[in-house]
């Protein structure tokens, strides 16, 4: 690499009034009191109901299509009772092994300071290893990329499957299913910027009613055919797989639809806590799901014609409007849950250096997890609309659905094995023995779903490949740029000493220079000396650190170190689930010993623009992707919440 500085400088007029950001900063600096106490914590019952709505919204919509899709591969020549019982047994034991054993009993205990999800598990594995491992990093990137594919497909298939129920009420209006679906999805994405706070108040109760409805409908049909309870025996599942070896993989791919959304148990751990999530699953969600699947099976055994849509045929025709209405509400909630999860996953990826900076807006005063990322929101909307227009039915989308989910689950299991063995919790042989049944089952599901590639399964793989390529290109480019900076570095300590004897004019005030490495001189400081030929009376190098924990301790937020009378270092720390807010952190900096006048201070940023110059090949492709992403990266002033109009940018072109 080589670099060429440019003279692009944007400054401010010092003779002006404070804007909103600076008033905000001034308020924080004037306030010596402790921050206001947090709002009272929610009770256990409220957290449990909230978990029902947010955590289980996605998996709660699976009865709309999972059993129907599992029946199709074996229904061509008619259905026998053992086949129906075998499918039901597969559904029941898949829910038990994947959700109850893997997630509820184990992964919910593998938390990173209360936070879960594939990137939180990656940080645990990385800490256990003791250094960055490229294979483990690749696993984490793959898991996050597959989640992105899931986040696009889930809203499309969930809302489509519910609106399709309207076709049973008014068959002549079937042509309006796609427009109505698009209208609901468009409205859902348009209200994202307002935040999930107001909507989430209704999520729990509505979803609780949905699960109670699922259980009641299932129980009602089970009473008419109680013999379906024999499906609890795993022998029916094994017998089905042995007898239907030719279509077993197709069936497994459909059965796996019953556990889509299970990743939300782990990803939303920090929002509700372990006990409410476990209680909601055991007391309501799991019984309701199993009862409903058994009820659908009982209906099909009684009336084989119900195979075309066993869920909506659980009720008499006069009840269909009410069922479609509540099903539509449940699917919108399921879509909302995965959209919020995409926002959280993106923020974690940004903080871990896997994606460029994006503008992150907080939509709640007291809930840091409620955020909005406009770029992600509109990309998801574009992807969802494209899928609905391309596939047009939930049946067609079901072929594309399972691959992303199964892939994410396999990645989570592999990362868990790395974490358990490298942290010394269990030996490798014992860990493999315990994890083997889950991993083998998930790999079987993944293999089954891979057979659907030509039917639409290529969609999530293509989406995941694009996201993974972007993540790896950004991580690689950032590491290269950091290495280049170190090669061209000037040690700060010796530079600071020499500046005490420099003849450069000294102007009053404080200059803050944001830099990733506080041991070397920032390029913005050198360019300021070169172009403006001045040195400020106080020069503070500000480094924003992302910790390997979700939320930084307020007492560790800021540390201040004086190098000499003219130079100092300030380190601000944020967890990987936090949005860095330098303005708010300045209150902690003052308590750490930093003294400065707001009106006599400026923030200097060194803005690098990569220019691709290498030979044609894979490296150049990755460099081009990095350069393209850097153009769309959010302005550091917005990302770090610096006081507006007190920022000076000094640009440079860097050849890669």
TrEMBL record:
The chain crosses the membrane at residues 84-105, 136-161, 173-191, 203-224, 244-266, 278-299, 319-350, 371-391, 397-419, 426-446, 458-475. It is found in: Cell membrane; Membrane. Its main location: membrane. Residues 508-655 form the K+ potassium transporter C-terminal domain. Keywords: Cell inner membrane, Cell membrane, Ion transport, Membrane, Potassium, Potassium transport, Symport, Transmembrane, Transmembrane helix, Transport. It catalyses: K(+)(in) + H(+)(in) = K(+)(out) + H(+)(out). Pfam families: K_trans (PF02705), K_trans_C (PF22776). It comes from the Bacteria. Residues 48-496 form the K+ potassium transporter integral membrane domain. It is a multi-pass membrane protein. Transport of potassium into the cell. Likely operates as a K(+):H(+) symporter. HAMAP family: Kup. Belongs to the HAK/KUP transporter (TC 2.A.72) family. This is Probable potassium transport system protein Kup. It comes from Paragemmobacter ruber.
